[in-house]
Specification:
Layout (H helix, E strand, L loop, with lengths): L1 E2 L1 E2 L11 E2 L19 H22 L9 E8 L7 H14 L2 E11 L6 H9 L4 E7 L3 H6 L6 H12 L4 E8 L8 H10 L5 E6 L1
Parallel strand pairs: 1-4, 2-3, 4-5, 5-6, 6-7, 7-8
Amino acid sequence: MRLPIFCRRCHYCVIPIVATGDAALGGDGLAVDTHPPREASDLDALVVELAATVAAAQAAVPAGAPHPYLVTVYIGGGTPSLTSTPGLLRLLAAARSAFSVAPAAKVMIDMDSGTFSAAKTTTLASAGATRASGGVQALDDRLLAVANQPHTGAEAVEVVRRAAAAVPAVSVDLMCGLAGQTRGAWPASLAAAAALRPAHGSAYAL
């Protein structure tokens, strides 16, 4: 499930998104939960699409065949963590209502390094989230600023540690080939990310 909401567009981004701007979010995501302006309509559309997907899947299953279980529930983006906590809980509940979700399913949510609070992390873990994926991109503030990322390296480190305290597994996303990123900066970025001891890491080349 994709929530195409960002507070701003990163300079390397070419996918269709909605960039709300910081002021439209209604909060900073840390002290005050965020509420993007399109949240209600986006969630309504996703719930409708979930129901349509289930109907199509059921029609394709031969009569008498066992109903398949979902083994992965992934809420990606965009920046799903910009969605309010009640909104994300609604989406998780809708997925579990629409599908048969395996008891040991991987339930993963992408998180933004600047707006993923400890309270949101703990609440989502209590609702069944098992993995959080952090869009770290880099741990060098200069590179983050050039890329128009909204967070700092220190904020990225903090959100990964916060998530690791709440969910069983955390993954980290890095970008290589960022504007101004030298050959020496990339190994340093890898080493800094590895020091956070994530369960999984992904590298995206520009």
